[in-house]
Specification:
Structural class: mainly beta
Number of strands: 11
Helix content: under 10%
Distance between the termini: 37 Å
Number of helices: 0
Strand content: over 45%
Order of helices and strands: EEEEEEEEEEE
Amino acid sequence: VQLVQSGGGLVQAGSSLRLSCAASGFTFSSSAMTWARQVPGKSLEWVSSIYSDGSTYYTDSVKGRFTISRDNAKNTVYLQMDGLKPEDTAVYYCNARRAMTPTYNYWGQGTQVTVSS
């Protein structure tokens, strides 16, 4: 099982980035996919989720700026981040989980996003 993330970096406020998370080793299409982020010294913060039916959810601070999407043919989930703010600076993690048997909960390796003011 692998979740391989890419797409982080250093950008200026107002810029855009797209994070990708490529999955293998499990049934991606039936997984709920989530992006979360963590700032050093703080708890992991949920950012956005997309379910197998395509429904999407966002934390209030990113609504209207971030867009989560999935491509089941490519086993990949994306997080398009527009209008980035310095407070978006964090390590971003993707997560795959399934609540029904067989259950699982997998994490990507994390990717740094740094937004300068």
